[in-house]
Amino acid sequence: MSRLAYLGPEGTFTEEALRILEPSAERLPCATVPAALNAVRSGEADGAVVPLENSLEGAITTTLDEFAWGEPLLINAELLLPVQFSLLARPDTELVHIKRVYTHPAAITQCRAFVARELPDAVVVSAPSTAAAAQEVALPGSPYDAAIAARIAGEHYGLVELAANIGDRSDTVTRFVRVSRPGPLPAPTGTDRTTLVVFLADDHPGALLEMLTEFSVRGVNLTRIESRPTGDGIGRYFFHFDFEGHVADARVGEAISGLHRICGEVRFLGSYARADKVAPQIKRGTTDPDFAEAGDWLSKIRAGRV
């Protein structure tokens, strides 16, 4: 049985994602995303499940930065989880009693309309996670009257649901990934995604265009691009890329090799099956047989057989 770390405590959306990705795994709750990933790096856990991006708020920057700066890890699976928030409180609490709400910053931004409409006088305070918020609200003498969290958190900590599905958007989805220490990659499925972190060799006009061209000329479709500060001063950034295909595909391997030639550093974060099972549209001239035929043709030219 594998042991998987996750952003805890019990009752987080991340735990729900872990249960779906690997139901039989032993679960190791961690206080933060870095702690969960470091549990994998140290060998305390076989892998981890962490949030990567949200359809409403975008990237989870803590996760992006951990992948860029920490010891290398590989993504081997992903999951798209619908996210529905509930307002949870101790039994016998009514909306008019709620003056202090505790929740994760992502939940604050995704439930603004409900809070403004139903709790206009309440103070909302940031928590390490939605489940940690529920856990704190459940404690006797807690300074908080309610938590915004997943319904499962209320079940874990004995809270009642005062309002359900309070997010500003009912179709919000969070993308979670399962990671492990470097090792053999999942086999190509035909509906794969590859993730990279790329650092510029130097900052010059057209540097980003040069990187994008490595994908474009080989027919590789980007599904996400994020810039993050390097910390070396204003205007210094590195980039996260998600794109269609597996590193075993010729067009993907060629694109990554091209980036390696022109960039300061390319960190490979994995090739794995897409959760939505969307197959790429491969344009003429970029299939594996096309690359093989072109290679054979070039070999003949170099051998003088024209």
Helices and strands in order:
Blueprint: E1 3-7, H1 13-21, E2 26-30, H2 33-42, E3 47-54, E4 58-59, H3 61-69, E5 74-82, E6 86-89, E7 100-103, H4 105-110, H5 112-118, E8 123-126, H6 130-138, E9 146-149, H7 151-157, E10 160-163, E11 173-180, E12 192-199, H8 207-216, E13 222-229, E14 237-244, H9 250-262, E15 265-273, H10 288-302
Parallel strand pairs: 1-2, 1-3, 7-8, 7-9
Antiparallel strand pairs: 3-4, 3-11, 5-11, 6-9, 6-10, 12-14, 12-15, 13-14
Brief digest:
The chain is of the alpha/beta class and 306 residues long. The chain has helices spanning 13-21, 33-42, 61-69, 105-110, 112-118, 130-138, 151-157, 207-216, 250-262, 288-302; strands at residues 3-7, 26-30, 47-54, 58-59, 74-82, 86-89, 100-103, 123-126, 146-149, 160-163, 173-180, 192-199, 222-229, 237-244, 265-273.
Task: Give a structural overview.
It is built from ten helices and 15 strands. By secondary structure, it is of the alpha/beta class. The strands form three sheets. Strands 1, 2, 3, 4, 5 and 11 form a six-stranded mixed β-sheet that branches. Helix 1 links the parallel strand 1 and strand 2. The model has no long low-confidence stretch (mean pLDDT 94).
Largest sheet: 6 strands, mixed
- How much of the sequence lies in strands comes to 25-35%
Query: What are the segments in which pLDDT stays under 50 over at least 5 consecutive residues?
Result: none
Overall helicity = 25-40%
Number of helices: 10
Over all CA atoms, what is the radius of gyration? 23 Å
Overall residue-averaged pLDDT value: 94
| Element pattern in H and E | EHEHEEHEEEHHEHEHEEEHEEHEH
Q: What is the terminal-to-terminal distance?
A: 58 Å
Could you say which structural class the secondary elements and strand pairing correspond to? alpha/beta
Q: In one word, what is the shape? A: elongated
Say how many strands there are.
15
